């Protein structure tokens, strides 16, 4: 399975900052390798997703439920 492609689709669906158009395809790619590594190491993926949104993007745009949904979708892949 192509985890990179699948995780990118999950992140695009989540799209916490509401990117539109062609830019959405690449907006969240920078986080995929780190997400994959987090899952491989059995680290706290929710903590990582919250760090990505709250600290790196700079604000919590999505709800806690939306972030948890991202985590659950990613974990279902593996």
From TrEMBL:
Name of the featured protein: DUF1871 family protein
Domain of life: Bacteria
Origin organism lineage: Bacteria, Pseudomonadati, Bacteroidota, Cytophagia, Cytophagales
């Amino acid at each position: 399975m192509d985890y990179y492609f699948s995780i990118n689709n999950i992140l695009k669906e989540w799209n916490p900052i509401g990117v539109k158009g062609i830019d959405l395809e690449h907006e969240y790619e920078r986080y995929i390798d780190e997400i994959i590594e987090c899952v491989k190491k059995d680290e706290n993926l929710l903590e990582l997703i919250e760090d990505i949104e709250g600290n790196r993007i700079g604000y919590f745009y999505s709800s806690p439920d939306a972030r948890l949904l991202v985590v659950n979708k990613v974990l279902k892949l593996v």
